[in-house]
Amino acid sequence: MDTFWFVVEAIGTLAFAISGIIEARSRHMDMVGVYAAALLTAFGGGTLRDLMLDGVTPGGRPLFWIEHQWWPVVILGLCMVAWPLFRDPTKATSERKIQLSIDLTDALGLALCAALGASITLRVAPDKGFIAALMAVVSSVFGGVLRDVVCNEIPNVFKRSQLYATAAFLGGALYAGMHAAGIAPHLCFAAAFATTLGLRVAAITFNLRLPV
Asked: For the chain, which residues score pLDDT lower than 70?
């Protein structure tokens, strides 16, 4: 299972980093700006989650990107590879395609990190189901908030837009409910991931929003 969780975290981190790179390049940022946006998007949510959970379990898990310092190096390499591919994205493709690329990579990161956030929370606080759902939102949303702020955008979670944080919360809540019922962690993860991803993709496709 350790390998499974590592792969999940890796894919979610890379998906968020790519969304940060695309967004930053579409804003014509230089390499420093692109790297900063990628780091903030990839690590922001997980960092805040781990700092908050450290108050639940003293001496808890260290920040993963500090414990494994090769992660920032990998993100830097990704930025360098992606740099020429998005040299001038507004000319290479339409704004709609750029936004769709950001939305889809972000949706993948959202779903993976929401399920992962709920899982990590329930490992250190097994009886805190509602907190697990909230941590699913923190893990999956906060990096995107930082990316949007750096890129001079109002974050999706702070405006009435397509379902975003709600999808992460419902996925995390499903994970917590299944965990409480004694269902195996990998099945809880699969259900939470599918729910979050399905809701987010449906929101993008059909412009689903909360009624208020």
From this structure: 1, 55-62, 87-94
Can you give the pLDDT at residue 163? 92
Q: At what angle do helices 70-82 and 2-26 cross, to 10 degrees?
A: 40
Note the pLDDT of residue 64: 82
DSSP characters over the chain: -HHHHHHHHHHHHHHHHHHHHHHHHHTT--HHHHHHHHHHHHHHHHHHHHHHHTTTSTT-PPPHHHHSTHHHHHHHHHHHHHTGGGSSHHHHS-HHHHHHHHHHHHHHHHHHHHHHHHHHHHHH-TT-HHHHHHHHHHHHHHHHHHHHHHTT---GGGSS-BSSHHHHHHHHHHHHHHHHTT--HHHHHHHHHHHHHHHHHHHHHHT-B---
Domain boundaries, the chain: 2-206
